[in-house]
Amino acid sequence: MKKILTFALLFLPSVASAQITVNDWGYNELAQGNIALGTRDLRSTIAGVINIVLGFLGVLTTVIILFGGFKWMTSYGDSSKVDEAKKMIGAGVIGLVIVLTAYAISRFVLVNIANKTL
Questions:
Q1: Mean pLDDT of successive 10-residue stretches along the chain, which has 118 residues
Q2: Per-domain boundaries in the chain
Q3: Which of 47, 51, 104, 116 is the most exposed place for a label (fewest CB within 10 A)?
Q4: What is the rounded distance in angstroms from the CA atom of residue 65 to the CA atom of residue 93?
C-alpha cells in the first residue's frame, strides 16, 4: 500500500501536467508585459503585510483568552483546571499586549519612514 501511495504522490502530478500545454512557467507572459503586477509602492505593501500578520496574531490571542475563559467556566470548581485556565488567560493577555505594542512600534516606524522619504 505504501508503494502505491508513494507512486501516486510522486508521479501523478507529472501525468496531470502532461495533459496541458506548458508555457514555460509564465516567462512568456512576463516578457510580453501581460502580467498585471501591483501598483502600490513598497512601503504600503510592507505596511499591509505587517497589518495582516499582526491582525492575525491579535485574533489568535483573543481566541486563547476566550478558550481560557471557557476552560475556567467548565472546570466545575477543580482548582487545578482553574489554575490552568488562569495561566492561559494570563498568557493570552501578555500576548495581546505584545501584539499591540508591536503594532504601535511598526506604525510609528512606518509613518516616520514615509514622512522622511517623501
A1: 75 60 59 69 83 91 93 90 93 93 90 82
A2: 2-117
A3: 116
A4: 7
